[in-house]
Amino acid sequence: MRFGVLGTGRITRRLVADLQSTPGATVTVIGSRDSARANWSGAEYGIPHAVTGYENVLLHPDVDAVYIALPPSLHTPWCLEAAAAGKHLLCEKPLATTAAEALTIDSACRKHNVRWLDATAWLHHERTAAMRGWLTDGTLGNLRHVSVAISFFEPFQNGDHRLDPALGGGCLLDLGWYAVGCAIAAAGPPRMVFATTLLRGEVAIRSSGVVWFDNDVTATVHCGYDVATRKWCEWAGDQASVVCDDFSRPWNDRPPRVWIHNRAGEVVSHSFQGSQERNLIAKLISAEPLESFQLQALRTQAVLEAMNRSSQSGTVESITCD
Questions:
Q1: How many whole angstroms from its chain centre is CA 21?
Q2: Using an 8 Å Cβ cutoff, are 118 and 76 in contact?
Q3: According to the model, what pLDDT value does residue 227 have?
Q4: Burial (CB count <10 Å: 0-12, 13-18, 19+), residue 239
Q5: Are 309 and 266 contained in the same domain?
Q6: What are the average pLDDT values for consecutive 10-residue runs of the chain, which has 322 residues?
Q7: pLDDT confidence of residue 254
């Protein structure tokens, strides 16, 4: 599958390399609103064609799919344009800035018969599959509670869209996507949430929430830009819990690992291999069903919107997403 890339920001470099190293995928075109940036990126990343304007990526004859690496506020319009052009979609997280927009993207892709995934790679790692397996095979027993925390202390660069609410900035749509998504991956459809959010100006800098699920399962989620680096989770059952200290992206100098703590106080560690990004890409370009991952994204978007409402209202908010 031949990919065109919309955007030349910092995040582009990493996933372009993964696209180029995934069997069955190539990167043929990259586009920017600035011709100099497009040309520089094409030469730097070894991409054959550099074009000015995102629409020219969609119009290029050597493009079957697009990777949308733009600020969140631009995801919906360009996802809709890409779907209408019959291009399969790999969109950076968050999928959109509102739950209604996310549903619109999903509907457009179904209408035009194109495949789509959000670029939440950790969901596709072998480690995540093992964690889900321990939920279903009885190792953890009945799930009771999920705890998730993800933060990076002021990870900003000049002109960073994460500091501009008009572009979809703030920690909720950024780091919150991972925190909430981790809870949903373990517990399923969310029902209610209560949240508090610290603002700096109009930008969400730190947010915490309690999420309620079916069968009396609860979750606490935290994300922030004013806290030291954390990316850990615990899925706790009545027989054991699984703890991961780098669930969103493995530490560079350590193998992906988790620890299972059982009721007797025994601890067993497990290590894994694999590339979550290449697994993600391989899933998109295959014929495998994508509905479970798409539903995960739509649920995540709905919870983040409800957390924002709760932070403003000071009350528990219901979640409608299935």
A1: 21
A2: no
A3: 97
A4: middle
A5: yes
A6: 96 95 98 98 98 98 98 98 98 98 98 98 98 98 98 89 95 98 98 98 97 98 97 98 96 90 98 96 98 98 98 97 78
A7: 86
Query: Can you give the residue range of the structural domain that contains 82?
Result: 2-119
Residues 127 and 104 both lie in one domain: no
User: SS3 of 146, please?
Assistant: strand
Which residue, among 45, 15, 13, has the nearest Cα to 29 in the 3D structure? Answer: 45
Concatenating the DSSP letter of every residue in 217-250 gives -EEEEEEESSS--EEEEEEEESSEEEEES-TTS-
Beta bridge partners of 196: 208
Strands 49-52 and 26-32 turn out to be parallel
> Which tokens hold the place of 271?
């290590």
Give the position of tokens 């295959």. 286
Q: Which residue has the tokens 């100099």?
A: 36
Q: How many domains does the chain have?
A: 2
Instruction: Say whether both 154 and 193 belong to one domain.
Output: yes
Would you state the structure tokens that stand for residue 51, as one six-digit string? 């074009």
**Distances from the Cα of 20 to the Cα of 24, 282, 290, angstroms:** 9, 12, 22
Which among 273, 86, 305 has a CA at the least distance from the CA of 176?
A: 305
